[in-house]
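Case study: histidine kinase.
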Amino acid sequence: MITSCCMESDYNYISEKGDKPRERLIQDELKISEERFRGAFEYSAIGMAIVSPQGRWIKVNKRLCDFTGCTKDELYAITFQDITHPDDLEADLLLLRELVAGKREYYQIEKRYFHKDGSIVWGLLNVSLVRDEEGNVLHFVSQIEDITDRKIVEEAYKESEQRWQFALEGSGDGIWDWNVQTGEVFYSAQCKAMLGFTENEMGNSCTEWDKRVHPDDKDRYFADMHAHFMGKTTIYTNEHRVMCKDGSYKWVLDRGKVISWTEDGKPLRVLGTHADISEAKEKEIQLKQTLDIISEQNKRLTNFAHIVSHNLRTHTGNLEMLLYIIDETKTEEEKQELMEHLKKVSAQLSETMQHLNDVISIQANIKKQRTVLYLREYIHKATEAMAGEIGLHKALIINNVPAEVTINYSPAYLESILLNCLSNAIKYRHPNRLPVVEVSYHEEGGRKVLEITDNGIGINLARYGQKLFGMYNTFHGNADAKGVGLFITKNQVEAMGGKIEVISEVDKGATFKIFLS
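Here is what the predicted structure looks like once written out:
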């Protein structure tokens, strides 16, 4: 978790006199994001928890405490294994291991928990994980919905199917009853109403539902049903999106069980329920987005704090040492020589402070005003600004962006991004050929993408890919390389809601893909 006490520092003077310190603006933004996360977490309608890789509860909300009957401190003193029913523990751990191994993006399981009063409660557990930039597991995010009442209803069905159906319809869930051999399905009125249909507007074939399942969810939808038919799961459970009558999609929790089999062991009748979980999924997506934002901000804050603590300490230490030596020096000649060193260290300190100021400026102006800009025109302006450098190295800049392409962007950021990318393309030119830089535009997945491709020396991504956009990271040994340009470019692109990617091979040049929206 990010706290708001991380950035009290000695460089408040970076802002203009009378202005609120820029680092304070960053803190305010982080505080707002954190408060949103806390609110979504703490006041969720279902149990929420962040769990360590060892199974310990790191953070739990009030709903989870109500579900287990334990206080937060009591939960923090135990693991989730301690309150899991032993008959359900191995299945839970198996899914957890598959999640860690990357075999699944998340998992869901119905399991029993021991309540503090000794009773057993049922929970529908959804688990996803958060990794660090190196792929290591940081923690698990668990959502536990209390389904005890639903399980009681299912037990009631064993005694009376009619009574169970009435109770479940009253809860808002729809019921389906599938004859696998004939392909006919009874969909309850609630099932149809969930999608915006009346009872007479939806047929009784299994394809009625299947054809409405979102294309991205179909493979898993059929695979989970098949796994149940093969006896791999005791209950069929799947979450998928279904197209409604008006063309929109709803998230549905689909659950079922084979209740009768043919003589040769094939499923004959399957009984199940449909529950509208769209609201819960929306909250889950919002929470994940908030967690992603906080995680990214935390990484930036950690990187920035490291730069400040290391670089400024180095410069100030050098200044202190030089001043001490000057004070002890006897001859004017030696003092003059030391004064020259002092000037160099002072200049380096000023440069570092300017770099830090640039980074703070980007974060403090995330809501910078956007303007409709003609992309080709700005590329032309950037090449004009670099005319001397382009002419000196006989570089060829090819602008393939159509004249009519516009973007809603910050003019200052766009200019900075273009100058950094074009300058790097020339700076890291190949010694055996004249530099050629091609700028093109396309749309990808509904997003506007600018590509800048050069024929330079390229980048060893296997070796430097993880550090490419880090501050003060250099890779080619150029004397004038500072390791700041790409760091600032990445921050500017992300501040405008985009991202930047690189494709490169050593000796074959590089392509920077800038997602502008």
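For the exam, be able to explain this: The two ends are 28 Å apart (CA to CA).
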